[in-house]
Amino acid sequence: MAKVRAQDDLFMLMDDQQLRKLAILLRNQEEPLSFSINSEPDRVKFLEECNDAYDIVITLLENSTDLRNKHKVEARTNYSKKAAIAADIQDYVKYGINLGLQCIQNCGMRVSVVEKLKTHFDDIAIELNKADSRNVTDLQSLADEVLYYKNSMWEYTINLRSGTSRAHSKAYSDTLKLEGIEFPNLVARHKNRLGYKEEFEFLEEDQKLEVYNSIIEESGRAKMPTIYKRNKQSRATSPGGIATMAVTAGIMAWDIFTAEHKLESALSAGVSLLSGAVSYAVGVAVSSAVGTVVANTQLGILMVSMAGFVVGAVVGILFAAATGAILGAILGTGGKVPPNLDNLKFYSATMPNGMALANEISHGSSHSARDQLCKITKLIPSNK
User: What is the pLDDT of residue 320?
Assistant: First the structure.
């Protein structure tokens, strides 16, 4: 029987075949959306993102299984703590895949998230393989660190889109709205509270993570594990894991900030007014009210607040060829919008809902899901 863990409306898929099915369904439903993109370079980029997101997920599933099996075999002849670490690494990877497939509806952002996850997996897999089984101290240090990543990713994934969890942060979000606090101010407040003097964008990745986790904790959204920090006498720290956690925590902090602003529906309404346009420009107002979304049909411009833009990037209503990089830059600076958005063309589409598909897959009750699990044919952009 497939292993499924559930809480509220998110079903944590742990069976390899179920995760493969979900990845295939998303790609098969996303790729045809490329036909609405009138720019050939943008269309090529979108197709690359769809295919890359799928390919990276499959590679992660295969490589994490291989790593676990390798150390499981070794443990049969000589007890090794490596087998337990490899099992935790695989769980961490699967939690992260669930987050990418279920919680991120924009494939441009999804590929950014799973790319970071793969980079981190590659780092810790190499470290585990090279580790000396006789060095108990280093192995325990690696085990503790991997367990931290695993537990943190579980919290982010389970609580990011869960209706029950999101309800916990609505009162907090409403208070921020009434106070007129912008996201950068919220980030600065928690940064200062933690005693960091530099601007957020210049902090180390683990410090940025601590700031975002502080927001998550205060909102009541989730109880985050204490950030694992290696001591100076231990192994050299791999930056991949903290970077993966930081962008994930940033996404949740954004969702907490906008929980009571109903930006998703406002943005959908604004986009619908421009439905006749094949592409349009997006103006991002940094200091305007968080819920501002204004469509100008004559100019083909969608004016959104900074928070509204990020919501669009996460839910996949609004996308550009560089969505993942743009959102990564915003989160990395604590809410500053990159200056080059005017040079990009944006498109709108209703992306498939990975959470709904996962729910169907976990219950084995979706005829539509089974029907769409056909042989995959990658869409090839024309050379015109």
Answer: 82
